[in-house]
Amino acid sequence: MRIFRLITILWVAARFGLDEFFLGHERVRGLRWLVNVTLFWRDLSEPRAVRLRRALEALGPIFVKFGQMLSTRRDLMPFDIAEELARLQDRVPPFPGSEVRIKLEAIYGKSLETVFAQFDAEPVASASMAQVHFAILRDGTEAAVKVLRPGIGEIIEHDLGLLEAAAILVEKLFSDGKRLHPREVVGEFRKTLTDELDLMREASNCSQLRRNFEQSDLLIVPEVYWDYCEAGVMVMERMKGVPISQTAKLREMGINIPKLAQDGVEIFFTQVFRDAFFHADMHPGNIQVNQQGQYIALDFGIMGTLTEVDKNYLAQNFLAFFQRDYRAVAQAHVDAGWTPADTRVDEFEAAIRAVCEPIFDRPLKEISFGKVLLRLFQTSRRFNMEIQPQLVLLQKTLLNIEGLGRDLDPDLDLWKTGKPFLESWMKEQFGWQGALRNIKHEAPRWATLLPQLPRLAHAYLAQDNANAMREQTALLLAQQRSNQRWLILIAILLTAGLVLAGYAYLHPH
Q: Which residues belong to any copy of the ABC1 atypical kinase-like domain (predicted)?
């Protein structure tokens, strides 16, 4: 199976002239003339980035998703390719309703009519991993049913194996390969796809996000109907809204579009810095808006998490950028170990300033965070900055949010909108409010620990005494063994002396 898939990939690559990307390397450049002569029939009039996008689309949904992820890694490729890959759309024909019925009845072990009062065989959405159908539960509740594609696991496994082999080649062939961590990137992609194959995990992601925004007026998250969920199917509340990309219809509904754009930025920063748990696939197809102007989140297969260290690092960097404190940005990277320990902070600071100052001198609303990231990634190569795979999803989400916000409101100022939120968050984290919150958080543990302190202190002292006694005993035993050795040596010498004396007495000269 894998060999046939490899042949297909090589054929598609040859048809679209993707050999150009590899034959430019000095180790194999001599083969270029042979390939060009052999494949003379190809039409290579389109730019290389367009041909790459079309090839990924021809190879199917897994390669499309990989291209979408690569479009956010501006450090891995030239600008033209990153921009073209960002245009990839995951349009996949649905699989037949008869197959949906067979799959669901196999999962539930009963007929579809027994599980649902009504099930619409025509899907309302179809993607590379799954498709969605509307249904009505036995109690009359309207629901959305997400079903995995049949055999998708085997397809993914085959394609990932080939991607991993390609990553190894990139790492071996290109001098910059190891720094860019191609195998780690494919590893992150594997983890993401593996998570998406388990709809129980997606259901738990949805439930967590809903709980995080339970008191929010900005974001609505569907309820999960756990009794109907399995690894291959997820059933949740049916949401009714308008896709956020249909701005004309939203205006007809009386929605305040500029406020909607600002709300999106606030939702993003809230997920990242308050919860450290964020929706990492916020493209227009996964977001709707209801009559009240609230966001509706859909599709929870890709979620991102951050550690406290990551959160603090990001917040400090955002604020440093806002304040144009480039030395703080450079120092943060060195302190985090993302650049070599011997990096000269002053040189790194100067390089960052050269990137950012020309951008910041323009009106704030014209600043593109995506362009800032691109220039910073290019600068990072000079200082051998390590790419952090755990922040790939955050970067992707931030670019999605910026693009979505500017589509809604071209005058959206992402920096100005986010700065007050970040400043407030930093005060809460490191000011007296943060200290009180930490005390409140630790109070139950202290209440449990304080009554045990006398016993723990006694046990510690007793342990110290026991250790001291053991050390003293060991010392005495060592001394005893030493004394025994001396006694044995003396006895041997005395015996030898007696023997010699007796010999002399018996054999006088």
A: 87-332
